[in-house]
Protein backbone atom coordinates (compact mmCIF):
# COMPACT_ATOMS: atom_id res chain seq x y z
CA UNK A 1 0.00 0.00 0.00
CA UNK A 2 1.25 3.50 -0.85
CA UNK A 3 1.95 6.01 1.93
CA UNK A 4 -1.14 7.96 2.98
CA UNK A 5 0.17 11.19 1.44
CA UNK A 6 0.31 9.48 -1.98
CA UNK A 7 -3.16 7.93 -1.86
CA UNK A 8 -5.69 9.00 -4.42
CA UNK A 9 -9.00 9.74 -2.77
CA UNK A 10 -12.55 10.03 -3.96
CA UNK A 11 -12.19 13.74 -4.82
CA UNK A 12 -8.98 13.29 -6.82
CA UNK A 13 -5.75 15.22 -6.34
CA UNK A 14 -5.92 18.43 -4.27
CA UNK A 15 -6.28 21.70 -6.20
CA UNK A 16 -6.37 24.03 -3.19
CA UNK A 17 -3.57 26.49 -2.53
CA UNK A 18 -2.92 25.02 0.92
CA UNK A 19 -3.00 21.76 2.78
CA UNK A 20 -2.87 21.26 6.52
CA UNK A 21 -0.73 18.98 8.62
CA UNK A 22 -3.05 15.99 8.35
CA UNK A 23 -2.26 13.19 5.88
CA UNK A 24 -4.71 13.09 3.00
CA UNK A 25 -7.20 10.21 2.85
CA UNK A 26 -5.51 8.45 5.77
CA UNK A 27 -8.77 7.62 7.58
CA UNK A 28 -11.34 7.56 4.81
CA UNK A 29 -11.30 7.23 1.03
CA UNK A 30 -14.06 9.88 0.87
CA UNK A 31 -12.61 12.53 3.20
CA UNK A 32 -9.23 14.12 2.46
CA UNK A 33 -8.55 15.53 5.95
CA UNK A 34 -10.77 13.47 8.22
CA UNK A 35 -10.13 15.09 11.59
CA UNK A 36 -10.20 18.65 10.24
CA UNK A 37 -13.50 17.81 8.58
CA UNK A 38 -15.11 16.22 11.63
CA UNK A 39 -13.94 19.04 13.92
CA UNK A 40 -16.16 21.43 11.95
CA UNK A 41 -19.27 19.87 13.49
CA UNK A 42 -18.83 22.33 16.38
CA UNK A 43 -19.38 25.14 13.86
CA UNK A 44 -22.44 23.47 12.35
CA UNK A 45 -24.59 21.77 14.99
CA UNK A 46 -24.64 24.26 17.92
CA UNK A 47 -25.31 27.27 15.63
CA UNK A 48 -28.22 25.42 14.00
CA UNK A 49 -29.64 24.83 17.47
CA UNK A 50 -29.04 28.51 18.31
CA UNK A 51 -30.86 29.62 15.16
CA UNK A 52 -33.83 27.41 16.02
CA UNK A 53 -33.93 28.78 19.57
CA UNK A 54 -33.63 32.34 18.24
CA UNK A 55 -36.74 31.81 16.11
CA UNK A 56 -38.63 30.13 18.95
CA UNK A 57 -37.76 32.90 21.42
CA UNK A 58 -38.54 35.70 18.95
CA UNK A 59 -35.13 37.33 19.32
CA UNK A 60 -33.80 40.01 16.99
CA UNK A 61 -32.91 38.96 13.45
CA UNK A 62 -29.25 39.83 14.04
CA UNK A 63 -28.91 36.80 16.30
CA UNK A 64 -30.36 34.57 13.61
CA UNK A 65 -27.95 36.09 11.06
CA UNK A 66 -24.99 35.47 13.37
CA UNK A 67 -25.94 31.83 13.96
CA UNK A 68 -26.51 31.20 10.27
CA UNK A 69 -23.14 32.79 9.46
CA UNK A 70 -21.39 30.43 11.87
CA UNK A 71 -23.20 27.53 10.24
CA UNK A 72 -22.05 28.71 6.80
CA UNK A 73 -18.46 28.94 8.03
CA UNK A 74 -18.67 25.38 9.37
CA UNK A 75 -20.24 23.98 6.21
CA UNK A 76 -17.72 25.72 3.97
CA UNK A 77 -14.82 24.49 6.06
CA UNK A 78 -16.33 21.00 6.11
CA UNK A 79 -16.48 20.97 2.28
CA UNK A 80 -12.95 22.29 1.93
CA UNK A 81 -11.29 19.83 4.30
CA UNK A 82 -13.29 16.97 2.85
CA UNK A 83 -12.25 17.67 -0.76
CA UNK A 84 -9.15 19.93 -0.76
CA UNK A 85 -10.49 21.51 -3.96
CA UNK A 86 -9.88 25.19 -4.78
CA UNK A 87 -13.59 25.93 -5.17
CA UNK A 88 -14.25 24.53 -1.74
CA UNK A 89 -11.34 26.56 -0.36
CA UNK A 90 -13.23 29.68 -1.44
CA UNK A 91 -16.34 28.25 0.21
CA UNK A 92 -14.23 27.95 3.36
CA UNK A 93 -12.62 31.40 3.31
CA UNK A 94 -15.30 33.75 1.98
CA UNK A 95 -17.99 32.93 4.57
CA UNK A 96 -15.44 33.85 7.26
CA UNK A 97 -15.11 37.32 5.73
CA UNK A 98 -18.87 37.75 5.37
CA UNK A 99 -19.50 36.48 8.88
CA UNK A 100 -17.01 38.92 10.36
CA UNK A 101 -18.85 41.74 8.60
CA UNK A 102 -22.16 40.52 10.03
CA UNK A 103 -20.60 40.31 13.51
CA UNK A 104 -19.21 43.85 13.20
CA UNK A 105 -22.68 45.11 12.35
CA UNK A 106 -24.20 43.09 15.22
CA UNK A 107 -21.65 44.64 17.56
CA UNK A 108 -22.63 48.11 16.36
CA UNK A 109 -26.28 47.24 17.02
CA UNK A 110 -25.45 46.56 20.69
CA UNK A 111 -24.40 50.16 21.32
CA UNK A 112 -26.86 52.27 19.33
CA UNK A 113 -29.39 54.52 21.02
CA UNK A 114 -32.23 54.65 18.51
CA UNK A 115 -34.01 52.05 16.42
CA UNK A 116 -32.19 53.01 13.21
CA UNK A 117 -30.16 51.39 10.46
CA UNK A 118 -26.58 52.52 9.97
CA UNK A 119 -26.52 52.68 6.17
CA UNK A 120 -22.95 54.01 5.90
CA UNK A 121 -21.65 51.06 7.95
CA UNK A 122 -23.74 48.63 5.91
CA UNK A 123 -22.38 50.13 2.69
CA UNK A 124 -18.81 49.92 3.97
CA UNK A 125 -19.15 46.28 5.08
CA UNK A 126 -20.87 45.19 1.86
CA UNK A 127 -18.28 47.01 -0.23
CA UNK A 128 -15.46 45.40 1.76
CA UNK A 129 -16.99 41.94 1.27
CA UNK A 130 -17.45 42.57 -2.44
CA UNK A 131 -13.86 43.78 -2.93
CA UNK A 132 -12.41 40.82 -1.01
CA UNK A 133 -14.53 38.42 -3.08
CA UNK A 134 -13.34 39.96 -6.34
CA UNK A 135 -9.68 39.98 -5.30
Automatic annotation (TrEMBL):
<keyword id="KW-0746">Sphingolipid metabolism</keyword>
<keyword id="KW-0862">Zinc</keyword>
<dbReference type="GO" id="GO:0005789">
    <property type="term" value="C:endoplasmic reticulum membrane"/>
</dbReference>
<keyword id="KW-0479">Metal-binding</keyword>
<dbReference type="GO" id="GO:0006672">
    <property type="term" value="P:ceramide metabolic process"/>
</dbReference>
<comment type="similarity">
    <text>Belongs to the alkaline ceramidase family.</text>
</comment>
<keyword id="KW-0443">Lipid metabolism</keyword>
<feature type="transmembrane region" description="Helical">
    <location>
        <begin position="90"/>
        <end position="108"/>
    </location>
</feature>
<feature type="binding site">
    <location>
        <position position="22"/>
    </location>
    <ligand>
        <name>Ca(2+)</name>
    </ligand>
</feature>
<keyword id="KW-0812">Transmembrane</keyword>
<feature type="transmembrane region" description="Helical">
    <location>
        <begin position="64"/>
        <end position="84"/>
    </location>
</feature>
<feature type="binding site">
    <location>
        <position position="24"/>
    </location>
    <ligand>
        <name>Ca(2+)</name>
    </ligand>
</feature>
<dbReference type="GO" id="GO:0071602">
    <property type="term" value="P:phytosphingosine biosynthetic process"/>
</dbReference>
<keyword id="KW-0378">Hydrolase</keyword>
<comment type="pathway">
    <text>Sphingolipid metabolism.</text>
</comment>
<feature type="transmembrane region" description="Helical">
    <location>
        <begin position="117"/>
        <end position="134"/>
    </location>
</feature>
<protein>
    <recommendedName>
        <fullName>Alkaline ceramidase</fullName>
        <ecNumber>3.5.1.-</ecNumber>
    </recommendedName>
</protein>
<keyword id="KW-0106">Calcium</keyword>
<dbReference type="GO" id="GO:0046512">
    <property type="term" value="P:sphingosine biosynthetic process"/>
</dbReference>
<keyword id="KW-0472">Membrane</keyword>
<feature type="transmembrane region" description="Helical">
    <location>
        <begin position="34"/>
        <end position="52"/>
    </location>
</feature>
<keyword id="KW-1133">Transmembrane helix</keyword>
<dbReference type="InterPro" id="IPR008901">
    <property type="entry name" value="ACER"/>
</dbReference>
<feature type="binding site">
    <location>
        <position position="20"/>
    </location>
    <ligand>
        <name>Ca(2+)</name>
    </ligand>
</feature>
<feature type="binding site">
    <location>
        <position position="81"/>
    </location>
    <ligand>
        <name>Zn(2+)</name>
    </ligand>
</feature>
<feature type="binding site">
    <location>
        <position position="33"/>
    </location>
    <ligand>
        <name>Ca(2+)</name>
    </ligand>
</feature>
<dbReference type="Pfam" id="PF05875">
    <property type="entry name" value="Ceramidase"/>
</dbReference>
<comment type="pathway">
    <text>Lipid metabolism; sphingolipid metabolism.</text>
</comment>
<comment type="function">
    <text>Hydrolyzes the sphingolipid ceramide into sphingosine and free fatty acid.</text>
</comment>
<dbReference type="GO" id="GO:0017040">
    <property type="term" value="F:N-acylsphingosine amidohydrolase activity"/>
</dbReference>
<dbReference type="GO" id="GO:0046872">
    <property type="term" value="F:metal ion binding"/>
</dbReference>
Amino acid sequence: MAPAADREGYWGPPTSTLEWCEENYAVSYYIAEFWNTVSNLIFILPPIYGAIQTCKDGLEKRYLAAYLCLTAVGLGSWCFHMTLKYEMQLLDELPMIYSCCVFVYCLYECFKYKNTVNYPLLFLLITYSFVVSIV
